[in-house]
Amino acid sequence: MEIKGTEMDSIEKYLELSRTCPELFAQSEELPLVLDPKELYAFAQKSGRRIGIVYESHYHLMVVDVVRAKNGSLFAYERLMNRVMRGAVVIVPYYNGKYILLRQYRHALREYQYGFPRGFGEEGISAKENAGKELWEELGVQAEKWKGFGKIVPDSGAMSSKADVFLAELNEAPQVIQEEEIVGHIALDWEQLGEWIRDGKITDGFTLAAYAKMSLQK
Known about the structure:
single chain, three-stranded antiparallel β-sheet, 5 helices, 10 strands, elongated
């Protein structure tokens, strides 16, 4: 099989990414990454698989690595990376004794879901600045106090991303913003929030992780 130019480009882009973001290509005895160009091209030719950065959008990179098993055999392993690797956030808006959740249509699920506001990282701004930007865009308000709860990893089985969790104490009531498939929001006190999680009304992983972080500091 002849390797097409697009496949060569995907491997070249992949190797460039490995040089600019070495933390995402850390070697491990468990699953060593193959980063030798000759081996990558040979694997692509033999397997018929596209290797490297196989898809790019404004938000994501779809990456297919080649890893070496303990018996020496090679296989492809997929992962999804955010286009901007740092600065993703989850915001827990708090106003008048209640926590604010968006009701939003999620295309990947093809259904509505309740969850705290969140956003991808953006170039040139910090995670906290990004949190303020997302809060303004999705609820039309600013926060008078911020508290960080550390990072979460939403899906380590497929994604390379982490997100910072922030509690935002609002200085005014949230607005009704209808964009990015947001159709409204709901305000729950701490007890109600736990009940909604228990009853399966809230299933968003970012929201559940943020709730767990806050629970340990209450």
